[in-house]
Amino acid sequence: MKKDLILIICIGLYVTIFAYSLHNPTNSSSNQYMTDVSKLMPVKVERIVKGSEIESIRQALREAEEKDLKVSIAGKRHSMGGHTYYHDSVVIDMTGFNDILDFDKKKKTIKVQSGATWEDIQQYINPYGLAVQVMQSQNIFTVGGSISVNAHGRDIRKGSLISTVRSFRLLTADGRILNVNRDENRELFYLALGGYGLFGVILDVELQLTEDELYEMRTETLDYKDYSAYFKTEVQGNPDAQLHLARISTAPDSLLTEMYVTDYMHANGTLSDHNTLKKEQLTGITKFALGVARDFDWGKNSFWSLQKEYFEQVDGDLITRNNAMRGESKFLEYEAENDTDVLQEYFVPVDGFADYIDDLRDVLSEEDLNLLNITVRYVNHEEGPVLSYSDEELFALVLLINQGLSEQEQKKTERIVRKMVDVTLDHGGSYYLPYMSYPTREQLHRAYPRADEFFSKKLEYDPEERFTNFFYEEYK
Ligand SMILES: Cc1cc2nc3c(=O)[nH]c(=O)nc-3n(C[C@H](O)[C@H](O)[C@H](O)COP(=O)(O)OP(=O)(O)OC[C@H]3O[C@@H](n4cnc5c(N)ncnc54)[C@H](O)[C@@H]3O)c2cc1C
Predict the structure, then answer these.
(1) Are residues 186 and 241 both part of a single domain?
(2) Which of 51, 266, 420, 476 is most buried, most CB within 10 Å of its CB?
(3) Domain C-terminal end among 400, 415, 433
(4) What residues form DSSP beta bridges with 371?
(5) 145 Cα–ligand 1 center, Å
(6) Per-residue model confidence (pLDDT) at position 27
């Protein structure tokens, strides 16, 4: 009898807790370890709150204020320096806040909740013959995370992501929801875009879209010394060229000398014959080749040959803009106990490319860095975010590096990264901030001359420093 009573109480308690959890709008979990895609800095956070509606996000902010806790904001966590979390903070995970709110085919605009990914948007707009103007080389990221780093991609005509943002709503540290655009709350527009989640939660965003188009892929192999001239005459100087991507060899046999380029040229043809959205096709083989490249020099040589062969094969193929911008990303997913892959990205003036590469090669020849790949893209002069990485025309070099997880290995990569950043800065360049915070404060200030203004405006809008992350702590 007593046993039955205990059982009934237990079931009652379980049902009550279960029912409460279903109705609990904050849908949160406590005392969890959290990290980002780099896996280099796991820390304990107070709570991860899944933001599924505006009220639950607001409530999480209010509760954090009451308990004097810091708040961090996370999208797909593909930034790599603790930009999405902080020890003992409340992390608002935006990935469930991903509805399409409005779409105007005529005006070519779309309004989405900030946890929507580019994939969500592409799936929605592709049937209407429309495409995203600017996004990364892959479509896996959230819109909120992408505009908070002011991402850039393959389109050489359209600038960085900020140029395509019409407006957004921002939940600020004091709990207000503001409309932010180039007229209303203009200052916040240029702070929160490229603002690394430090000025509030971007709730929803209105983006300008463009036509989906048909391109013919044109590939070419060249020497790095010819790349700037090739780009200026054959790509920038040719109105048919719209997207562009290059790779420079990291294989020991041709280190930083051989390149191949892929241009996407406007083509005639019927869009509907090509516009089924493609699934990733090359995961197995590329994942295997990259795996071998991590461990062996001959693997790096084969990986380079394989990439070149593949791109030579696609020369002349037709592809839609939406498909060209989706990219392959699954082959980059890497799980290992002792090591991980990280990215670095350096920006250098177009004309100084060859000289820069010579100096970068000198650093790499002296050091033992497990460099797997370098992609090169073009970044246009961009319209004024305070933390701006480009006030002139630049090439952007994305370095994929394999490194150990141990403290010693991290120190080693940090030292080499600082050398590479110095070379980049000495060539009038800059570097991208969503990756590991290896560069020094001095380097950040050299690369971002308005950094002081950025951090003092942060304190003006958020004096309690409610919105915090490890990137902010490192550089504020
Ligand atoms: C494999 C790989 C490929 C990449 N390719 C490119 C590329 O081609 N071009 C490029 O420019 N970058 C590239 N990046 C970098 C990428 O653009 C950034 O890491 C971007 O932030 C990823 O989006 P996310 O959803 O993962 O954002 P997260 O990493 O989750 O967040 C990034 C920042 O935005 C803030 N944030 C997120 N959501 C919100 C919100 N709703 N409101 C306010 N703040 C918010 C976070 O606090 C954080 O500071 C790449 C990264 C990886 C790992």
Answers:
(1) no
(2) 51
(3) 433
(4) 401
(5) 4
(6) 56
Question: Are 13 and 132 within one domain?
Answer: yes
Q: What is the DSSP letter of 233?
A: I
Cβ 129 vs Cβ 271: under 8 Å: yes
Q: How far is the CA of 148 from the centre of ligand 1 (A)?
A: 7
Structural domain total, the chain: 2
Protein residue with its CA nearest to atom 37 in ligand 1: 145
Closest residue CA from atom 39 of ligand 1? 144
Identify whether the C-beta of residue 32 lies closer than 8 Å to the C-beta of residue 41: no
Instruction: Report the phi/psi class of residue 298: left, alpha or beta, with left for phi > 0 and alpha for psi in -120 to 50.
Output: alpha
- What range does the domain containing 390 cover? 214-433
Q: Which atom of ligand 1 is nearest to the CA of 95?
A: 25
- End-to-end CA distance of the chain, in Å? 64
For residue 165, which amino acid is it?
V
CA dist 317 to 296, 301, 326, Å? 33, 26, 16
Whether residue 241 is found in the same domain as residue 173: no
The β-bridge partners of 307 are none
Distance 141 CA to ligand 1 centre (A): 6
Residue to probe by mutation, ligand 1, list 50, 54, 136, 382, most atoms within 8 Å of CB: 136
Q: Mean pLDDT, consecutive 10-residue segments, the chain of 476 residues?
A: 47 40 48 86 93 93 97 97 95 97 98 98 98 96 97 94 96 98 98 98 98 97 98 98 98 97 97 92 83 94 92 93 88 85 97 98 96 96 84 94 94 98 97 96 96 98 98 96
Q: Which residue has the tokens 């806040």?
A: 97
What is the residue with the minimal CA distance to atom 6 of ligand 1?
A: 136
Q: How far is residue 388's CA from residue 149's CA, in Å, rounded to a whole number?
A: 10
State both tokens at 13.
């308690």
Q: Look at residue 244 in the predicted model and tell me its pLDDT.
A: 98
Identify the residues whose C-beta falls under 6 Å from ligand 1.
Answer: 37, 72-79, 83-84, 94, 114, 136-138, 141-142, 144-146, 148-149, 151-153, 196-197, 201-202, 329, 332, 343, 434, 469
Q: Whose CA is nearest to atom 2 of ligand 1?
A: 78
Identify the pLDDT of residue 352: 97
Alpha helix (H) residue ranges in 374-434: 407-426
pLDDT of 185 = 98
Quote the pTM value. Answer: 0.92
